[in-house]
Specification:
67% of the residues lie in helices and 6% in strands. With 373 residues, it is mostly helical. The chain folds into two domains: 2-41 and 175-371, no CATH class; 48-158, abc type-2 transporter like domain (abc type-2 transporter like fold). The longest helix has 32 residues, at 176-207. The radius of gyration is 28 Å and the shape is elongated.
Length: 373
C-alpha cells in the first residue's frame, strides 16, 4: 500500500513541476498577495493631502496650521485664495479636504480666547473621511488645551473632569499589517488547497486518465490521498513562507505557540481539502472547478471578517458568517499570532473547525463514492 501511495505522490509532484501555471499559483501568488495586502490593503490613514484657505494670515493662524502639519494625518500641499478654489481641487481629487481660517481669527483668539475655523473633508470615501474628521477634531482640541495653559496658567490635569486614558492591547501601534498578514494565512490555506485539490482530480477525469488509474491495483482511497498529499506539503510551505515574510519583512510579532498554530492549521486543511474533493464531484472540467472555487471563496472573504468587521454587518449576514469556515480559522490564527492565546480561549473556533471538517469530509466521501472515479 505504501509503495502505491508513494507512486501517486511522486507522480503528482512531477506533474506539478511540469506545469508552470500550477507552480505560479502555488508559490508566487501567495507572495504577491502578501506584498499587495501588506502594503496596499491598509486601514491606516496618514498624510492626507489637504489645502489651506487662510483669510487671516496671522501668527495665530500659522500656529494652527503648524499643529496640523505636525500631525501624521495631514500634509498641507496647497495654499488657495478662496473656498471656490478649494472646492475645485477637492472635486478634481487632488485634495482630500482643507482648512478654512476666517478673517479675524487671531484677533478673536486674543480678545475672547475662542475662535472658529472650518475643516472640510471629502466624504466620498467614508473610511478616510471619518478618520480625517476625528483627527481634525483631535488637533483642534489639542490646540485648545495649549491655549488654556497659556492664558490661565492652569494645567489641564488640574481642572475638574473625567480623565479617560485609553490603552490598546495586542497591537499598540494599531498597524494594519499586524491584522492583515495573519488573516492572509487562512485565506491562502483555503484557496491553495481547495483549488488545487479540486483541479488535480478533475484534471485526471478531464484528460481521460482516471480510467487508466482505476484498472491499476491502486485503491480509490490511495489515489485520493496520494493526490492531495503534495498540496498539503505545498500549503504548509506557503504557511511558513508567509510567516517568515510577515515576521522579517513586515515586523509582525508571533506572540503565541508556533507548534499550536501548525497543528490547528493542519486541522483546518482537512476542511479545505474536503471542500476541494466536494468541488471535484460537481465540476466536469478544470475551468468549472476554478469557477466554483472562486464562487465559494469570494463570499467567504467578505463574510469571514478578513476585510470588514462582522459586528458591523447586518444581522442576516452575521448569521450567514457562522457557516463560513474561514471565519473561525481567522480567529484562531489572529488569536495565536497577535494575542498569544491557547486552546482554552480558542475552544469554540476549534470545535467549529472540527465540525466543518467532519461534515464536509462525509459529504465529499459520499458524493465521491456515488459518482465514482
Amino acid at each position: 500500500m505504501f509503495r502505491r501511495l508513494l507512486a501517486i505522490v511522486v507522480k503528482e509532484f512531477r506533474h506539478i513541476q511540469r506545469d508552470p501555471r500550477s507552480l505560479a499559483i502555488m508559490f508566487l501568488i501567495p507572495v504577491v498577495q502578501l506584498l499587495l495586502l501588506g502594503y496596499a490593503a491598509t486601514t491606516d490613514v496618514k498624510y492626507l493631502r489637504i489645502g489651506v484657505v487662510d483669510y487671516d494670515r496671522t501668527p495665530q493662524s500659522r500656529a494652527l496650521l503648524d499643529a496640523y502639519r505636525a500631525s501624521n494625518y495631514f500634509t498641507i500641499v496647497a495654499y488657495l485664495p478662496n473656498t471656490d478654489a478649494l472646492r475645485f481641487e477637492v472635486d478634481r481629487g487632488h485634495l482630500r479636504g482643507g482648512i478654512i481660517i476666517p478673517a479675524g481669527y487671531g484677533r478673536q483668539l486674543e480678545k475672547t480666547g475662542r475662535a472658529t475655523v472650518a475643516f472640510v473633508v471629502d466624504g466620498s470615501d467614508p473610511t478616510i473621511a471619518q478618520t480625517a474628521f476625528s483627527a481634525a477634531q483631535a488637533v483642534g482640541q489639542a490646540q485648545s488645551v495649549d491655549l488654556i495653559r497659556e492664558r490661565l496658567h492652569i494645567e489641564p490635569e488640574d481642572q475638574p473632569g473625567i480623565d479617560v486614558r485609553a490603552r490598546v492591547w495586542y497591537n499598540p501601534e494599531m498597524r494594519s499589517q499586524n491584522f492583515m498578514i495573519p488573516g492572509l494565512i487562512g485565506m491562502v490555506l483555503t484557496f491553495i488547497t481547495m483549488l488545487m485539490t479540486a483541479m488535480a482530480i478533475v484534471r485526471e477525469r478531464e484528460w481521460g486518465t482516471m480510467e487508466q488509474l482505476v484498472v491499476t491495483p491502486i485503491r480509490p482511497i490511495e489515489l485520493v490521498v496520494g493526490k492531495v498529499i503534495p498540496y498539503i506539503a505545498i500549503a504548509f510551505w506557503d504557511l511558513l513562507e508567509i510567516l517568515a515574510i510577515g515576521v522579517w519583512w513586515f515586523d509582525v510579532p508571533i506572540r503565541g505557540s508556533l507548534p499550536l498554530l501548525l497543528q490547528l492549521s493542519a486541522l483546518y486543511l482537512l476542511t479545505s481539502l474536503s471542500m476541494g474533493l466536494l468541488i471535484s464531484t460537481l465540476a466536469q472540467t478544470q475551468q468549472e472547478a476554478m469557477f466554483l472555487t472562486y464562487f465559494i471563496m469570494l463570499p467567504s472573504i467578505f463574510l469571514s471578517g478578513f476585510f470588514f468587521p462582522i459586528d458591523a454587518m447586518p444581522a442576516a449576514l452575521q448569521f450567514l458568517s457562522n457557516f463560513v469556515p474561514l471565519k473561525y480559522v481567522l480567529i484562531i490564527v489572529r488569536g495565536i499570532i497577535l494575542k498569544g492565546v491557547g486552546v482554552p480561549e480558542l475552544s469554540e473556533s476549534v470545535t467549529a473547525v472540527t465540525i466543518f471538517s467532519v461534515v464536509l469530509l462525509i459529504l465529499a466521501a459520499t458524493r465521491f463514492r456515488k459518482r465514482g472515479l
